[in-house]
Design goal:
heterodimer, A: about 55 residues, alpha+beta, 3-stranded antiparallel β-sheet, two-stranded antiparallel ribbon, about 30% strand, B: about 180 residues, mainly beta, 5-stranded antiparallel β-sheet, 16 strands, elongated
Chain lengths: ~55, ~180
């Protein structure tokens, strides 16, 4: 599943870093877990976090 | 459409007192309103979403209701709002809008960009250190020498040097990464 990152993230296991605007292709569960942690993510069927605006 | 009579009316021999609530077809109701015999009944509530304007192009949320008038709050893309006093019969209820999605930033942290500062002719270079995406477009915090400025996307002309993350190594520690599994 693809998601667009709106905040810099680093993936622990691989050390990969993604900047806002980057498209990440990962497992749906993982992306949903990131969204659940409040990371602003935009992707199909993934609720994004509005906290970015605060 | 619900209307409230403002004057005594005769309906098929039956006298209706002012204040009587009637549910009429819209054409009839509008006619009564135009004749000054009735006004639109309040079918809107605080928190209802409405459109208004001519043509109806503004979308807002009712925050207060007074006699025949609603205070409608229109939100802007920067987290602020404006309140408008609108006659209730000019408002059309709508379903609550979906939250607007933030725009996808066109530039990335670490990129060196050419941007306009204060005037269109004053073009400067700086490096993006932070991004805030808003529905209407992203804002970028740009480090330009000792200055740090917030600049809207429309004021950025383009990237000077792609992949400048390495060249701007001094900025790297300032980037706040969130670690994920």
């Amino acid at each position: 599943m693809e998601a667009i990152i709106l905040k810099p993230i680093r993936i622990k296991s691989t050390g990969e870093e993604f900047f806002p605007g980057a498209v990440v292709d990962s497992e749906r569960e993982k992306i949903e877990a990131w969204a659940a942690r409040g990371l602003p993510i935009r992707g199909q069927d993934v609720a994004y976090n509005e906290g970015i605006l605060s | 459409m619900n209307v409230t009579l403002t004057r005594k009316a005769n309906s098929g021999g039956k006298i209706l007192e002012p204040g009587t609530l009637l549910d009429l077809p819209e054409g009839k109701a509008r006619k009564l309103i135009d004749l000054g015999l009735a006004r639109q009944a309040v079918t809107l509530f605080i928190d209802s979403w409405v459109t208004f304007g001519s043509p109806p192009d503004q979308v807002g949320q009712i925050v207060r209701l007074e006699e025949g008038v609603a205070i409608v709050r229109v939100f802007n893309q920067f987290g602020g709002h404006h309140d408008f006093r609108c006659p209730i019969d000019t408002l059309k209820p709508i379903a609550p809008p979906e939250s607007p999605l933030p725009a996808i930033p066109a530039y990335r942290v670490g990129e060196m960009v050419r941007y306009c500062h204060k005037t269109a002719l004053n073009v400067q270079n700086g490096t993006i250190t932070e991004i805030k995406p808003f529905p209407a477009g992203a804002w970028y915090r740009i480090k330009d020498g000792d200055a740090l400025r917030w600049v809207g996307e429309m004021h950025i002309q383009g990237v000077i040097n792609n992949g400048v993350h390495h060249a701007a190594g001094d900025l790297q520690p300032n980037i706040q990464f969130t670690e994920v599994d």
